[in-house]
Amino acid sequence: MSLKTVLILLGLALATIFALVCVLLTRERTPRSCQHLPPEQEEMEDGQSLVFADLTAEEMSQVVRYLQGQLGVPLVDASRAKPWDNCIASVDLQVPAKAEVLRFLDAGGARPPREALAVLYFGKQPEPNVTEYVVGPLPAPAYHRDVTVQKYGGKVPYHRRPVTGKEYTDINALIQRELRKAPHFLTACCESDGTNLVTLTTAPRGFKSGDRVTWFVLFHNVAGTGYYLSPVGLEVLVDHGDLHVSRWQLRKVFYNGRYFASTGDLEQEFVAGALEVVRLKQPQADAVLGSMEPRQPPGPPGPLQFEPQGPRYRVRNNHVTFQGWSIAFGMNPNTGPRLFDIRYRGERIVYELSLQEALALYGSNCPGGMSTRYLDGSFGIGRFAYELVRGLDCPYTATYVDRHYLAETDTPKTNQNSLCIFEHDSALPLRRHFSDSQSFYYGGLRKNTLVIRTISTLINYDYIWDFVFHASGALEVRVHATGYISSSFFHGQGTDYGNRVGPHTLGTMHLHHIHYKVDLDVDGQLNSLETQDMEYEFVKDPWSAQNTIERPYLRRERLEKEDEAAFPLNVPMPRYLSFVSPNPNKWEHPRSYRIQIISFAGKHLPTNSSMERSVSWGRYQLAVTRRKEEEPTSTSIYNQNDPWTPTVAFADFINNETITNQDLVAWITVGFLHVPHAEDIPNTVTVGNGVGFFLRPYNYFNEDPSVDSSDSVYFSSEQDVGACGANPLACLSSAATCAPRLPPFHFGGFLNL
């Protein structure tokens, strides 16, 4: 072999070694740049947030066992209980009193005892009633106390109890028996023997206290589709108030604009040829209005959000931290999501932020639709928050959290992955400026937020509940409505109450009103309420006194009484309304947080309505009251079935007490009027169907706190903008190599149905 050949081979070998070294170094360097970084540590001792934590499944089971052994009465599992039985309806956390919690969190006091609130239906008593017990201490219960009279001023009458799944099952069995009395009519109207028809409940149930009489609307049932869009024109009124199921009766029948005493009378009219029948075909799955099956094959995947070095937030038990934010989160099985002890940069801003109620009120020329006023808390806003679909309901890489509940059974259930937490890039600058004058530079900050989300499916509607935390110290609360509209059978002057959206389907008008409790503690518990708005004044220009200037000026006012701080729905209120602290910021303005409401609410029920007091929170877009331990919620699960004598009437909270330098609560109503239209088929979209409010710092800080964000971008005309060290945006190309290995898709949300 010649020397030249040897040198060539040696050179090739060296080149190969050099290339391999480069590859190895690159491979070694990439994992270091992509390795997950530990999220920043936030101020809050480990375990403190557990004072607000939802009950564990084991704690719920301990409460059930304790009650079964200590009450001295037979308890039937609620899933099997008849109205004349005793049963445990639900078990949830008993949130400790605020004073106790603050002594523990802020003053080194003892941890409050952990307790549960158990709701029991006592049907097997001389005077059937609903009783609420506080049971503790957990995890080993040793005592219980009846708090019903303390909370409500007396025992809760039995007829106010929410309807259980077992009660619905027995009602459906009664309806099926009654339908068999009209076989010829059913064949003609619906191509049915009744077994392929499903019922939808309405509420409330009657017209006076003590009633338990419900209209049920019948629909064609087509598997895999939303039956809510296929009414057959038949509705039945069922009296199910008696403790004995055998005494329940069908009181009235409605079909296509006419009322009948029974299904037998309906059949008789049909056979006699005296009834006009709209002959409906049994809908097919591929042609039914409510089908959501894709009509096109899958296309290329859309954008995917991921964290190159792992999540920048930290979740531990019921506590999440993110870039100065600290939040304790949970879920009430009735009222839904609730947050506690919300802090920013170590300072508490909100003690409690919780959903209270969701009202859906309908109009129609059919009895079921016209009498429907759903109060969703009585059905279970939190209980029916099912598993979220990864990659659609929330980002694929979000953190998913299980929630446990015990309702209508002695065995706890788990809704897996039913709450998600994620950082969201809004694809919008939080702030920015491009300077083209004097000096040339660009400065800005991406609007990245932390989102806590859950979604409730309440019969036909799906509500998306979001709590959003911004780098500016602002907190955003929003709700979007989607799912199926509810409908009536189209007949007569139906379009006075909505739009026709199918051959025989009327999309019925309705309003969604949502109520929240916001216990703000701005720079301490003692706050006042201040409003600011603009006026114009006409003044002569001071330099010549010859011309008039229309000069805007700021009108400030401190509101002193609760009556002044109750702002009626749909009436203009001051544009700036703030909870203010007695303490000033650096510029001698009171440290404050502003409430900014985004809402398109419909009209509230007239106050002379017999059931208006049960939803009297809806009178106000905002009402500020003094915080009281005995006024924990604006409504009750018992209001749905007895709105005529409400167990809790929010209007009673407003009694003109002073609100200057007090512990205050803001009660906020948001909502929108929905007139269904063709584009609501098959589903209502979230676009334009979102409302909510902001809590924004207003002179709380001395400057925008986001200036301290490590995500800030700044470069000038004199810099090399492509240098990663000087401009974080120049680092994104290398960060893109850190795409995560996604976990396999899994969904178990059908398991608990």
In short:
The protein is mainly beta.
Protein architecture, described:
This protein is mainly beta and 753 residues long. It folds into 3 domains: 48-157, Nuclear Transport Factor 2, Chain: A (Roll), CATH 3.10.450; 165-272, Nuclear Transport Factor 2, Chain: A (Roll), CATH 3.10.450; 313-698, Copper amine oxidase, catalytic domain (Beta-galactosidase, Chain A, domain 5). It is built from 9 helices and 34 strands. The strands form 3 sheets. It has a 26-stranded antiparallel sheet that branches. Strands 6-7-8-9-10 form a 5-stranded antiparallel sheet. β26 and β27 form a beta hairpin. The longest helix is centred in the first third of the chain and has 32 residues, at 3-34. The protein is globular, with a radius of gyration of 30 Å. The N and C termini lie far apart (80 Å). Residues 16-32 have low confidence and may be disordered.
Task: Label the overall shape.
Answer: globular
Total domain count: 3
In the CATH scheme, the class of the largest domain would be: Mainly Beta
Number of helices: 9
Helix content: 10-25%
Terminal residue distance: 80 Å
The CATH topology label of the largest domain is Beta-galactosidase, Chain A, domain 5
- pLDDT averaged residue by residue: 93
Q: What is the CATH homology-level superfamily of the largest domain?
A: Copper amine oxidase, catalytic domain
| Strand portion | 35-45%
Structural class: mainly beta
Domain Copper amine oxidase N2-terminal: 73-143
GO molecular function, one term: quinone binding
Domain Copper amine oxidase catalytic: 305-706
Family: Belongs to the copper/topaquinone oxidase family.
